[in-house]
């Protein structure tokens, strides 16, 4: 690549601002857009907004920056399946108790193994319960 | 010649010469390690690193892979060429209709304007990396039954079911090819404009892809528009839905917006330079530039 600063080599050009609207459309948004106000109930893709009722509980689960539930499936040593729930505020012990009770009732009183990280504000649950955990959080209104 | 003249010449030379970058750095000649020369003098030991007697010392070892008369391993096992032509293969990032619908629901993409690879990459929810030979996105049919948006979409590959899902809602889909240089600009337009280089001309697809993009059933960008209309009807009959009409003039204009085959951004032509700092576009006026880009566009 040759870089030259010779003024004689700069050819004639035209300056236009008319097409800048097309350029503006091509620039990315600096922040993630806010949740649309007009959503009531479930959207076509299955996304549900968080409800007001969730604030009255002793605990609160924040959504991620992309407005999704902070629930993640983990696999350790190829066959140890875990579910991690992050962004838990408030009484994490009460949250864990409610969640395990919900899962035990749903799966015929099968014991649920869980791990609470009080400083890291997350919980891990043993087993492939990612959809059940999602249902629980949505029922609570998070 | 005076010392001043030499300094000027040296300065001019520095201006003209290519800049020193990580790409053109070279190692010093002293740094290159020479292979050890095993001489036959006393200093190199008794056997000079060759051991005692035999094939090793006399350099008559059998060839690599030879098993002393048995059929060697590399001939016993049939060849399984999984990686044949790996350097020519293309990769496409899968994008399901469910993911696309989620982006639309949460206003990550604007359905009031045509959606193309630039707007999908600008969400930062998917990454297209041409260094990994990724040539764009492949629209897959997961979530086709829940798809509900009238959009003008442009992807690189698409399934039949996903084409039907988009056309059922009244939308328009087309598949198109970007060559690596154009893809680099399309995947990160902000970075490309900041570089201050002219917008490139998109090249025609290579031989193995040309057929795909010329076919109307794939909604290829090189297919004839009459044939595309015909195939829209055929697909509607196959999947049992009615094609929708345009509701307003504005919507019709948006849905029928298409890029030229050599154009990579909507509303911007090849050869233009975008100046983000002063918010203006520089268009070359000289006939030599016009001829150059016209020639390239004609060949494309």
UniProtKB/TrEMBL annotation, chain A:
Q: Which Pfam families match?
A: Img2
Give the primary localization class: mitochondrion
What GO molecular function annotations does the UniProt record carry, in alphabetical order?
structural constituent of ribosome
- GO terms of biological process kind: translation
- Provide the protein's localization: Mitochondrion
Gene3D superfamilies for the chain: SUI1-like domain
Gene Ontology cellular component list: mitochondrial large ribosomal subunit
UniProt keyword list: Mitochondrion, Ribonucleoprotein, Ribosomal protein
Entry's family note: Belongs to the mitochondrion-specific ribosomal protein mL49 family.
- Name under which the protein is recorded: Large ribosomal subunit protein mL49
Automatic annotation (TrEMBL), chain B:
Molecular function per GO: structural constituent of ribosome
Q: Name one GO biological process term.
A: translation
- Where does the Large ribosomal subunit protein uL15/eL18 domain start and stop, copy by copy? 94-172
Span list, region Disordered: 28-63
The alphabetized UniProt keywords are: Ribonucleoprotein, Ribosomal protein
Q: Which InterPro entries match?
A: Ribosomal_uL15 (IPR030878), Ribosomal_uL15/eL18 (IPR021131), Ribosomal_uL15/eL18_sf (IPR036227), Ribosomal_uL15_bac-type (IPR005749)
Record flagged with keyword Ribonucleoprotein: yes
User: Biased composition, Basic residues: where in the chain?
Assistant: 35-55
Give Gene Ontology CC terms. mitochondrial large ribosomal subunit
Keyword match Ribonucleoprotein: yes
Q: Which residues cross the membrane?
A: none
Q: Which domain of life is it from?
A: Eukaryota
Q: Which family does it belong to?
A: Belongs to the universal ribosomal protein uL15 family.
Q: What is the official name of this protein in its record?
A: Large ribosomal subunit protein uL15m
- Species name: Lottia gigantea (Giant owl limpet)
Give the organism's phylogenetic lineage.
Answer: Eukaryota, Metazoa, Spiralia, Lophotrochozoa, Mollusca
């Amino acid at each position: 690549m040759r870089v030259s600063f010779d003024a004689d080599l700069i050819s004639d050009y035209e300056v236009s601002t008319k097409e800048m609207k097309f350029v503006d459309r091509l620039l990315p948004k600096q922040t993630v857009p806010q949740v649309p106000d007009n959503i009531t109930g479930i959207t076509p893709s299955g996304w549900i907004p968080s409800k007001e009722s969730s604030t009255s509980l002793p605990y609160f689960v924040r959504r991620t920056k992309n407005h999704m539930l902070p629930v993640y499936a983990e696999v350790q040593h190829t066959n140890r399946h875990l579910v991690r729930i992050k962004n838990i505020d408030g009484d994490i012990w009460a949250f864990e108790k409610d969640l395990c009770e919900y899962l035990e009732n749903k799966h015929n009183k099968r014991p649920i193994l869980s791990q609470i990280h009080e400083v890291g504000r997350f919980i891990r649950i043993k087993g492939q319960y990612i959809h059940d955990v999602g249902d629980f959080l949505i029922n609570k209104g998070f | 010649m005076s010392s001043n003249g030499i300094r000027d010449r040296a300065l001019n030379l520095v201006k003209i010469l290519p800049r020193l970058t990580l790409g053109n750095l070279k190692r010093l000649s002293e740094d290159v390690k020479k292979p050890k020369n095993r001489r036959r003098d006393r200093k190199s030991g008794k056997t000079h690193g060759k051991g005692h007697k035999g094939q090793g010392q006399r350099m008559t070892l059998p060839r690599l892979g030879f098993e002393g008369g048995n059929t060697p391993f590399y001939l016993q096992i049939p060849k399984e060429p999984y990686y044949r032509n790996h350097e020519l293969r293309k990769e496409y990032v899968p994008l399901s209709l469910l993911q696309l619908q989620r982006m639309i629901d949460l206003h990550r993409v604007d359905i009031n304007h045509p959606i193309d690879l630039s707007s999908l990459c600008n969400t930062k929810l998917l990454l297209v990396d041409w260094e990994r030979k990724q040539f764009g996105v492949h629209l897959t049919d997961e979530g086709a039954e829940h798809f509900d948006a009238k959009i003008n979409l442009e992807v690189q590959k698409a399934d039949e079911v996903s084409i039907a899902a988009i056309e059922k809602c009244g939308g328009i889909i087309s598949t198109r090819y970007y060559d690596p240089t154009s893809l680099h600009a399309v995947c990160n337009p902000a970075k490309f404009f900041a570089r201050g280089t002219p917008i490139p001309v998109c090249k025609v697809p290579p031989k193995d892809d040309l057929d795909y993009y010329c076919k109307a059933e794939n909604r290829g960008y090189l297919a004839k528009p009459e044939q595309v209309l015909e195939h829209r009807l055929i697909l509607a009959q196959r999947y049992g839905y009615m094609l929708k009409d345009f509701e307003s003039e504005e919507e019709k204009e948006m849905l029928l917006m298409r890029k030229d085959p050599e154009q990579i951004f909507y509303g911007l032509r090849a050869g233009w330079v975008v100046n983000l700092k002063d918010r203006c576009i520089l268009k070359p006026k000289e006939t030599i530039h016009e001829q150059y880009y016209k020639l390239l566009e004609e060949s494309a």
